[in-house]
Design brief:
This protein is α+β, with helices and mostly antiparallel strands. It folds into two domains: 32-210, Bactericidal permeability-increasing protein, domain 1 (Super Roll); 257-471, Bactericidal permeability-increasing protein, domain 2 (Super Roll), CATH 3.15.20.10. It contains seven helices and 23 strands. Strands 3, 9, 10, 11, 12, 14, 22 and 23 form an eight-stranded antiparallel beta sheet that branches. Strands 15, 16, 17, 18, 19, 20 and 21 form a seven-stranded antiparallel beta sheet that branches. Strands 1, 4, 5, 6, 7 and 8 form a six-stranded mixed beta sheet that branches. Strand 7 (130-147) and strand 8 (153-171) form a beta hairpin. Helix 1 crosses helix 3 (176-210). The protein starts with 7 loop residues before the first strand and ends with a strand. Residues 1-15 and 57-87 have low confidence and may be disordered. Residues 1-19 form the signal peptide. Residues 29-271 form the Lipid-binding serum glycoprotein N-terminal domain. Keywords: Signal. InterPro entries: Bactericidal_perm-incr_a/b_dom, BPI_fold-BPI/LBP, Lipid-bd_serum_glycop_C, Lipid-bd_serum_glycop_N.
């Protein structure tokens, strides 16, 4: 059995906080099963185990050859105790069973990882013929957590040793006095051969941990970069990462939007699941970027709406004949909608809602003429958001719930704007909401942690955050 008895990640001396996300960052809780998968996958199909094979000796060299224990002055040389074993040579690792990974998190301390495998060695026996041995090995490694030059967590191998279990002679002849010598030799040599396996595994896991610090494009809006806000924390079931999202505009300037006034209360995590919590701040940031980039503005003309949505002066006059009955008939309408302040996002009561305030200028025009101002409205559009995760993003799709309007100015006398709200709602649903959904195609990026895929996550809207939970 190859058992990494104590692969200790000195990763934090306190356990995770009691369900509160104090910062505005993205809170990720990665189940211990995911770390076990990362270690196991690093051993499957890759060069880590293959590099060990054939490395013990070559014929008449190294471990049991002329330069090793059988060489001049060595324990088994002609000047040694058993000069008769000159022919025992060429012992190599020919087989290595894929290690079985067992992992245990140690709250407030680190991680214990056990790997179990069997090593097969082939060589030439002292009495001729093929010699085959099977050895069960325990490898004990101690690993400390450091910080890379990029500011990511990195696992550093501090100490590694091996413990041999049962040694089986599968074929060939090996006199009893030599059996102990072979065992002693393996004790001496195998750590140098098998400890690099642990080091290589850590290298793969470090690459996955390093992917937390990644730059994610936000289309024409800019980019988002994740970094660790604090050192990781460990409970008995998961590793908790407080990940700080840094949003930058196209020019590289850091975008800073208002933070929530109080911490997010994160629900408890079930065993064998992983969580990522997307805070309200990121929703506000994305919509703030859309607003400052003009992506929420639109000019609505008849070409943008279906025929069943009226957009002429004749249709408008019919809605308010007493106020707008004097409009010239048959002219097109131009609705210029401008969003001059950032929308507000509400995450509560299991629902995501976006409120967009806007100025709506209603104008009439003929194809070859200049638009003529009719009136200006202050409108507030309330939209519900349907949320859907993918492997890398949280996607939003909006639908209009309601629209309210107030008259800001008019070319004629004042009138009751509420009689236009239903018509305006139809126009917004037909022309404006599709544009919003195209702009929101950038989504909200999710941090990459050990390649956990949240595409099939269960989604829950809590107060000031959205929680995605996936079964490990």
């Amino acid at each position: 059995m190859l058992g990494v008895r104590s692969l200790l990640l000195l990763w934090g001396l306190v356990t995770p906080c009691h369900g509160l996300l104090e910062t505005v960052g993205t809170l990720a809780r990665i189940d211990k099963d995911e770390l076990g998968k990362a270690i196991q996958n690093s051993l499957v199909g890759g060069p880590i185990l293959q590099n060990v094979l054939g490395t013990v000796t070559s014929l008449n060299q190294g471990l049991l050859g002329s330069g090793g224990l059988l060489g001049g002055g060595g324990l088994l040389s002609y000047g040694g105790v058993f000069g008769v074993v000159e022919e025992l040579s060429g012992l190599k690792i020919e087989e290595m069973t894929l290690p079985k990974v067992l992992l245990k998190l140690l709250p407030g301390f680190g991680v214990q990882v056990d790997l179990h495998t069997k090593v097969g060695l082939h060589g030439s026996g002292p009495l001729g013929g093929l010699l085959q041995l099977a050895v069960e090995v325990n490898v004990s490694s101690r690993v400390a957590l450091g910080v890379s030059s990029r500011g990511t967590p990195i696992l550093i191998l501090k100490r590694c040793s091996t413990l041999l279990g049962h040694i089986s002679l599968l074929s060939g002849l090996l006199p009893a006095p030599l059996f102990g010598v072979v065992e002693q030799t393996l004790f001496k040599v195998l750590p140098g051969l098998l400890c690099p396996v642990v080091d290589s595994v850590l290298g793969v896991v470090n690459e996955l941990l390093g992917s937390v610090l990644s730059l994610v494009p936000l289309g024409a809006l800019g980019s988002m970069e994740f970094s660790l806000a604090t050192l990781p924390l460990i409970s008995n079931q998961y590793i908790e990462l407080d990940i700080n999202p840094i949003v930058k505009g196209v020019a590289g300037d850091i975008i800073d939007f208002p933070k929530p006034p109080k911490p997010v209360k994160v629900p408890p995590k079930e065993d064998h699941t992983s969580q990522v919590t997307v805070p309200l701040y990121l929703f506000n940031t994305v919509f703030g970027l859309l607003q400052t980039n003009g992506a929420l503005d639109i000019d609505i003309t008849p070409e943008l709406v279906p025929r069943n949505v009226p957009l002429t002066t004749t249709d408008l006059a019919a809605l308010l004949p007493e106020a707008l009955g004097m409009l010239p008939a048959g002219q097109h309408l131009l609705l210029s909608l401008r969003v001059k302040e950032a929308p507000s996002v509400s995450l509560q009561n299991k629902k995501a809602t976006i409120s967009i305030p806007a100025a709506l200028h209603v104008q009439s025009y003929v194809p070859t003429g200049t638009p003529e101002a009719l009136f200006e409205l202050k409108v507030v559009m309330t939209l519900s958001a349907q949320l859907a995760p993918s492997a890398t993003k949280l996607h939003l799709s909006l639908s209009l719930e309601r629209l309210s309007a107030k008259l800001a100015s008019s070319y004629s006398r004042t009138f009751d704007v509420s009689r236009l709200e239903e018509w305006l709602s139809d126009v917004v649903r037909a022309a404006y909401v599709p544009k919003l959904n195209v702009a929101l195609d950038v989504g909200i990026p999710l941090p990459k942690v050990l390649n956990v895929n949240f595409a099939n996550a269960v989604l829950e809207v809590i107060e000031n955050a959205v929680v995605l939970t996936v079964t490990s």
